[in-house]
Amino acid sequence: MVWEKEAVSSHMWPADPNGRKWTSERFREVLKRESRVGLGQEVTIAAYREIAIGISRRFLRGATAFKTEEGDENDEWKEENMGAAIADEQAGHTAHIAGMIYARGIMEQAGVVADRRQQFRESSTEWHRFLGFCEEEKEETRSKKRKRAPFESEADEARIDRWGRLRKMDTTAQLKRMMGKTAEFRGVQQEAMAAIVAGESPIVAVMPTGGGKSLLFMLPAWAEQGGTTVVVIPLIALRGDMMRRCKLLGISCASWEGRRPPDAAAVVLVTPESAVGEEFATFLNRLRATRQLDRIVIDECHIVLNRRYTFRKQMQQLGRLVAAETQIVMLTATLPPSEEDELFQRMHFKREQVKIFRARTTRTNVAYQVIRIEEASKKKEVEAVVVKTARRKVRQYRAGKVVIYGNSVPKVKQLAEQLGCNAYYHDAVGKAGMLADFMAGKQQVIVATSALGMGVDIPDIRCIIHIDWPWTILDYAQESGRAGRDGMPSEAIIIGQEGSQRASEDKQSEAEQRLVQLYAEGDGTAARCRRRVLDEYLDGREGREGCEEGEEKCDACRGPEEEMEGEETEEDRGEASSDDEDMGVVETEREERQRVFRQQEQERQGPRQTFIQQRQQEFSDVEWLRRQLAWWANRCGICEAAGDGPSEHDVRRCWRQESRDTREAIKTIEEQIKFESYSGCFWCGVPQEICNRWERNSYGRYQRTKDRDCQYRGVLIGGLIGVALGRAETGEQWRVRLEEFGVDNSERGETLIEFLGKKRALETVESNNLVGEFCWITRLIAE
Question: Can you give the pLDDT at residue 505?
Fold first, then answer.
């Protein structure tokens, strides 16, 4: 019997006849891996087919392009190949017969026709040119630039005209037309509006609750309704209120629904979850293609800083919206200066790019107070103080409303029952009706959790009472800021028991806990002005001694009061305008508008490029991690560093005397490390995307597999500690790096084990500091 090797098709491209075939599965995995690294997102074979045909039809030429319709004739191909076809016909055969039978080259493969091979070559050459693989062509052979479709030019022209009219708009006059003759800009509204209509981006406006933040996008949308403003709104209550206000002003406004995209709306409202989804990304792409997308507004933009990984994780991913390459406007009432850099980082902005407009956010008409109950007081005594205070304030403000906040649902339910009012919390039955009754005045008081935070726009709330210590000053400022939005005197009160739990592991850091303590107790010697703490943190204002003239006094202020320094005001500066009498002047202005417009478009590409580069780097890091895990599995860092013996064994079984300390360190870390939720596999620390113990379910989340275990268990810790302790120089570099992260293994700082188990926030994969440090140290020794 004769044994023959399996025949390999010439179209499978192996390196040699015995090479590995390029099967669909192999190509799929390589394409996904390389596109993630190169493009920042996965491309599948099905997607590639669509992309390739679309590119070919739009950018390639002649016989090398896919036909646009079945049966289409290609005049260019006919002209180029008519001569050869006539010669074959004159010889008494077809071009196909000539290629298959006559004058075949001795190196020609079976079943291949020479002219078809040449056409394949030309098609490949066209792709090479398109992808930039070829040297530059000579001027006479260079393909012509693709002619733009008529609708593209018209849409561009309309967009530039719309942008030009907005830049010249008299914002004060338009405000009076929209809101009434008595309407005026307040605070930093006019400065921020000037930046928006000028097309600057990104813009951050920090204004107090009730300060008119929504006007900053409603006025441009009202004045120029040819485009679309996308507004990301975190809560349903806010969305309903915004739709009502837009309707009253005659602004076409729609809420995003995947099945019915609101293409014609001037304002489109969308939740953070939908805003980062694929369907909405397609909608944004369509708006961009038709030149309708004017700006994206993120209302309550401090939600991007959400650090609770278990709560609405998509809020942290809103930085993806920079891919739309449009004007970004961010609005909030609570953005401490100390948090600005983190916000900019999550949104992929550079600080020097951002135009930030900041007004004082603490409310002058709110009197702040803290009622501290002794630690020794019994539970019933504490409850009695809370109920007594609540009832007293309800009686005091009969003409207004009272909101009482609690940190737990059971406590909220209990107090609501005692006061005979509604209890409002996340999954309360009929909570929409509760809120409607409260807004309409049918209920004077409501007891709620933080679920009643953002979205409460009720002018006559006279008193906000917190019956627990707030989680953070940021939360407290947001919730207490709901009082007195009509400008009338109001109160914000905290009732807290000394020694009661103020912190929650996933809701409050040590720094935030200290800030709440400073607000409640002062500096240890005397109570500090409540406004001083709020102003220093929320607005970066230093030097305040106490409540000032024109402000409702807080309970901590005593003695003579200093007058408030006068605030500087800017006079409205009108721009002289006249009709252009000369056509040349009009054309010059038009060209200048186009130049400035194009320049702004280029500047907006910066955040998107930063976003893509970060995703590419993360995907590249994941591929690096895969390779390093495979290499360091069953490999000893001590012996690898020594270089004088075999290293293909686990460091835990190393025979060297100097490996003893390393083994003990590894054992200690493995026994004590606890990985944060959503930071990787709980057993090995490896991202769930890589670990065999996990698989994706139909919802795109990870679930445990039934019969598979971690393939890299112990590799991360063994590799990291083995290299760090096996190489003195590398270990010293790592020690310095850890100090920069605040890790010093002292009582004052975070321990190494705590640090390694913490989640490391990434856009594309859930990971932790152990993975990050393993990648860092393996890259270091590779270099």
Answer: 44
Q: Residue 703 forms beta bridges with which residues?
A: 695
Q: Could you report the per-residue pLDDT of 376-432, keeping only the tens digit for each?
A: 778 888 888 888 998 898 888 888 899 999 988 899 999 999 888 999 987 777 777
CB atoms within 10 A of CB 155: 15
DSSP strands (E only) in 440-574: 445-448, 461-466, 490-497
Give, rounded to a whole angstrom, the gap between the first and last alpha carbons of the chain.
55
Closest CA to 449 of 420, 419, 422: 422
Whether the pLDDT of residue 647 is over 60: the answer is yes
| Helix, coil or strand: residue 239 | helix
- DSSP E strands: which ranges in 23-119? none
Which one, of 459, 462, 464, lies nearest residue 447 by Cα? 464
CB 494, CB 369: distance < 8 Å: yes
Rounded CA-CA distance 757/772 in Å is: 11
8 A C-beta contact, residue 196 and residue 203? yes
Residue 474 tokens read as 């940021």
Structure tokens at 712: 């890299």
Residue position matching structure tokens 């939720």? 677
Q: Determine the Cα–Cα distance for residues 597 and 167; give it in Å rounded to an integer.
A: 11
Which pLDDT does position 192 carry in this prediction? 93
Side-chain-side CA neighbours of 127 within 13 Å: the count stands at 15
**How far, CA to CA in Å, does 438 sit from each of 318, 462, 476, 493, 755?**
32, 13, 21, 20, 46
Domains and CATH numbers, the chain: 13-60+86-95 (no CATH), 155-358 (3.40.50.300), 366-500+509-539 (3.40.50.300), 618-782 (no CATH)
From residue 683, alpha-carbon distances to 505, 662, 714 in Å are 21, 20, 9
Contact 651, 662 (CB under 8 A): yes
Helix intervals (H) in 132-199: 150-168, 171-179, 189-197
643, 630 in Cβ contact below 8 A?
Answer: no
Show the tokens assigned to 68. 């646009």
Element (H, E) at 269: strand 267-270
Cβ burial 320-334 (10 Å sphere, 16+ → b, else e): bbbbbbbbbbbbbbb
Give which of 382, 335, 379, 326 is closest to 356, Cα–Cα.
335
DSSP state of 305: G
In this structure, are residues 550 and 499 in contact, taking their beta carbons and an 8 Å threshold?
no
Work out the burial of residue 651: count CB atoms within 10 Å of its CB; fewer than 13 is exposed, 13-18 middle, 19 or more buried.
buried
Residue 746's contacts (CB-CB under 8 Å, 6 or more residues apart) are none
